[in-house]
Design brief:
The two termini are 25 Å apart. The chain has 13 helices and 17 strands. Strands 8-7-9-15-10 form a five-stranded antiparallel sheet. Strands 1-2-6-3 form a four-stranded antiparallel sheet. The structure holds ligand EPS. The site of ligand EPS has 15 residues, from helix 2.
């Protein structure tokens, strides 16, 4: 089974990650991981930090002569911004005159307040360095290895931005492959497939920036090639929709996750909602895919369709009222350099969390210690992508 961990402060020396359980015999290179890291760094609305960073994951272990060994894969991404933060984030205690002034005015909507109280920190910097979405760079790097694995077994995952700041794309991606979705989305500054709506999204970002404000939005993740029966109805923690929802909800600022058209379905009749079946090609086909590829906590062979909504980022150019934790007096929230909108990047992180979350349910059904063994299991399994 797969497990992974990341570590690293946003402005510390580096991010590190460990991915354990990747089967042996998968070809992977730093260049392949770099493709997804570059995609995550793009996006209209990012702050100056993205001009400083050019993320590259170094493979430290678990790969030899271009192939995974089955042993833990360790990655390291340097923070290019680190030299500007050495006195603020050094591990050893600095001389008193080099100690950074503590941050004490939490931003509403951020981890600042609860994190400071929970960990008994007098300086909010101790919270925000880790709660920062910088950490998602490592998730994307680890997931790039999973993407390569899934490509070998005939699966692909893509994403596009559906809304930003009230501008909504109604583009139907039915029939468009995840690779094609990504190819088109990656050429657009907000990763939106509708050029006209993309213009409205950028205008909304510009307006928010001019007002010292931020905007959120929503993105959609599409997966093709997942065989029938990944996940299970037999216990709550094996339901594929629950596993995916938890993974995607873990992305900073994501506040809702829906599968298929469920968000619109609650007020409809059952006959309008469920996907009619008909016999075709020696199996079962569907007239629609409103279920988004999951029924009863299991993949049903249709494309997986997941949507996630992201709240506007909590670091505002015009800060909100707060309380100074050092004095208990009213104050204005701290201001940090940040992004006006990170929805396009979050969509790429969404793909990453989808890839990471699918690994265990997939391995549970088709697993093995090597890619070869898994390929053989796939060939032997009725209804698998190999049929
Ligand atoms: C972030 C604030 C900004 C973002 C950062 C997430 O960084 P900084 O405080 O250095 O300006 O750019 O995102 C990344 C660095 C990244 O790689 O995505 C935050 O507070 O969450």
């Amino acid at each position: 089974m797969i497990r992974f961990l990341t570590a690293g402060e946003s402005h510390g020396p580096c991010l590190v990650g460990i991915l354990e359980g990747m089967p042996a015999g998968l070809a992977i290179s730093e260049e392949e991981i770099a493709v997804d890291l570059r995609r995550r760094q793009l996006g209209y609305g990012r702050g100056q930090r993205m001009q400083i960073e050019s993320d590259h994951a170094r493979i430290l272990s678990g790969v030899r002569y271009g192939l995974t060994l089955g042993s833990p894969i360790a990655l390291q991404i340097e923070n290019k911004d680190w030299p500007n933060w050495t006195s603020q984030l050094r591990a050893d205690p600095p001389p008193p005159d080099e100690r950074a002034a503590p941050l004490t005015t939490p931003r509403p909507g951020h981890a600042d307040f609860a994190g400071a109280v929970k960990y008994h920190h007098a300086d909010i910097r101790n919270v925000i360095e880790r709660s920062s979405a910088r950490e998602t760079a490592m998730r994307v790097a680890l997931a790039a290895i999973c993407r390569k694995f899934f490509r070998e077994v005939g699966m692909s995952v893509g994403s596009h931005v559906v809304s930003i700041g009230g501008a909504v794309s109604t583009m139907d991606v039915h029939g468009i492959s995840p690779d094609e979705i990504n190819h088109r989305a990656d050429q657009n500054p907000v990763r939106c497939l509708d050029g006209e709506v993309a213009g409205q999204m950028m205008a909304a970002i510009d307006k928010a920036q001019a007002q010292g404000d931020t905007v959120g939005g929503a993105f959609e993740i599409v997966t093709w090639g997942l065989s029938v029966g990944v996940g299970s109805h037999v216990n709550y923690d094996r339901r594929l929709d629950a596993v995916l929802a938890a993974a995607i909800m873990s992305i900073p600022a994501v506040k809702s996750v829906t599968i298929g058209s469920a968000g619109d379905d609650a007020n409809r009749m059952g006959s309008e909602v469920h996907d009619r079946m008909y016999p075709a090609r020696g199996g079962v086909m569907r007239k629609t895919n409103r279920a988004g590829g999951i029924e009863g906590g299991m993949s049903n062979g249709e494309p997986l369709i997941i949507r996630a909504a992201m709240k506007p980022l909590a670091t505002l150019g015009q800060p909100l009222e707060t309380v100074d934790l050092s004095s208990g007096q009213p104050a204005m929230a701290l201001r940090e350099r940040s992004d006006v909108c990170a929805v396009p990047a979050a969509a790429v992180v969404g793909e990453a969390m989808c890839l990471l979350a699918l690994m265990n349910p997939f391995l549970e059904k088709f697993g093995g210690d090597s890619l070869l063994e898994i390929m053989n299991h796939l060939k032997e399994t009725p209804g698998s992508a190999w049929d």
